[in-house]
Amino acid sequence: MVRSMSAAGVLRDPAWRAAFEAVPRHVFVPYYYAGGGRLWAGDPDEEARHRWLDGAYADTALGTRMRDGLLISSSSQPSLMAGMLDALDVRDGDRVLEIGAGTGYNAALLAHRLGDDRVTTVDLDPEITESARVHLAAAGHRPAVVTGDGARGCPERSPFDGIIATCALPSVPRAWIEQAAHGCRIVAPLATGLVALRVEDTAEGRVAQGPFLSTSAYFVALRGAPERDEDAVRHGAGVPRHALSNDLFRFLLALSADSIGPLEAYRLWRHAHRPGRERFGVTVTDAGQWAWLDDPDGPHRWPLPPL
């Protein structure tokens, strides 16, 4: 798994390569859902156990927890995790907050890189946090695992030099900005993309700003967050079918769904020559937050809902 990710250019930092080599992913996914069924480490069928182990080291996301037929937790695709960790731009001694404990695998990678005492991971579901603690201990790590609302961060362990979210958001929680140290990097999924913000103290107040990464990203949504208008993403009166099936246009639809209609978004998309995710960004100030195309202060920007 590590060799294939390195060959693809997603493990450029030797420290992150060492973390992925050292932390055993299979410990964090003793079972997962695949092919309409569940694969698990204790299956009496030897062939099924081999399929479980092979899948644990495939570069793919693994659904790990279902409730009422809905996926509520997963182990993210390792190469996507590596890209997010690289974008987090951590340094020795940094304190990192993770939102969405999941299986505990990402927290273990962070703990290997920074040390257990520098890592805090938060999840709303006590079953998930307890399971993450067990997995982390089995892998030899004991970072702080906190049961709580990820949108509120973890003020008692702040300030943080890095904040990374493994759940999709409609906007950036204000609490994260307040708990960030000057220069903190925030990497979070938003509107099928990954935004990478830098927090700075300015004469006008605290500002977090940065672009989206070029990659797509699809995560389980942050529970408790307000839902966005998904109908605007799926449908669009007057929008050509080829655009509605285009991943980049659907990203713009998701990003602007609360502010402009699908047809207006399509006209902008064409006028801007079908922009990729990296041309978009987000700005968060004391007065509010907005997404933008090309220029934070330009004509094409949309308010994001408070969270």
Notes on the structure:
It is a single chain. The chain is an alpha/beta fold and 307 residues long. The chain is 31% helix and 28% strand. It has eleven helices and 14 strands. The chain has helices at residues 2-7, 14-22, 46-56, 78-88, 105-114, 126-138, 174-178, 230-234, 241-244, 247-256, 262-271; strands spanning 31-34, 37-40, 62-67, 70-75, 96-99, 119-123, 144-147, 160-165, 180-190, 193-202, 205-216, 280-285, 288-293, 301-303. The strands form three sheets. It has a ten-stranded mixed sheet, with helices on both faces. Strand 3 and strand 4 (70-75) form a beta hairpin. Helix 2 packs across helix 5 and helix 10 (247-256) packs across helix 11 (262-271). The radius of gyration is 20 Å and the shape is globular. The relative contact order is 0.10.
Give a nutshell description of this structure:
With 307 residues, this protein is α/β, with parallel strands linked by helices. It contains 11 helices and 14 strands. The chain has helices spanning 2-7, 14-22, 46-56, 78-88, 105-114, 126-138, 174-178, 230-234, 241-244, 247-256, 262-271, and strands at residues 31-34, 37-40, 62-67, 70-75, 96-99, 119-123, 144-147, 160-165, 180-190, 193-202, 205-216, 280-285, 288-293, 301-303.
Set out the fold topology:
Elements: H1 2-7, H2 14-22, E1 31-34, E2 37-40, H3 46-56, E3 62-67, E4 70-75, H4 78-88, E5 96-99, H5 105-114, E6 119-123, H6 126-138, E7 144-147, E8 160-165, H7 174-178, E9 180-190, E10 193-202, E11 205-216, H8 230-234, H9 241-244, H10 247-256, H11 262-271, E12 280-285, E13 288-293, E14 301-303
Parallel strand pairs: 5-6, 5-8, 6-7, 8-9
Antiparallel strand pairs: 1-2, 3-4, 9-10, 10-11, 11-12, 12-13, 13-14
